[in-house]
Amino acid sequence: xxxxxxxxxxxxxxxxxxxxxxxxTSGWLDPYFFGIPSEIFQDLWKMTxxxxxxxxxxxxxxxxxxxxxxxxxxxxxxxxxxxxxPFWAQVLDPIIMVLYGIPRISLAPLFMxxxxxxxxxxxxxxxxxxxxxxxxxxxRRTQGCRQLVVTAQVTEIFPLKLNNFLLSWLTITFxxxxxxxxxx
Length: 184
Hints:
Order of helices and strands: HHHHHHHH
Largest sheet: none
Oligomer: single chain
Helix content: over 70%
């Protein structure tokens, strides 16, 4: 990469943090809501030195991977069930589209009220985008495919048009799962 580009990016980053620091300390931004960058970096450094940041990162990854795993399994199972029953796929298609379109951040307070502040609300918050994106992507990818390839091996029970589905779905969905534990 060009050194001029790297220098320009570093200058933009330093300018951003400098403006943020100035705005927070001069009263333009409320430090309670926006924080002060120098204090945030001090806390991060202190947490890195005493090792507590790694504990918190592990908990966040545990919540995200739990939600992602449960969402992936249940989403793909539901997608296969809908593919096997075209009647229910047509009945539930508009409902799935509406539920998938609800912004995730608007559901976070409800999940916290319903399931508490513990790991359950964060795992379920991660689970929702996985299920609906699996349903949405699987259904759209296989709309034109009528025949299932069924053999003795489990890895070959996929529709013919599903060759790259899992990789594209993983890349689209994983960032949504990381937003669950981070925002809540």
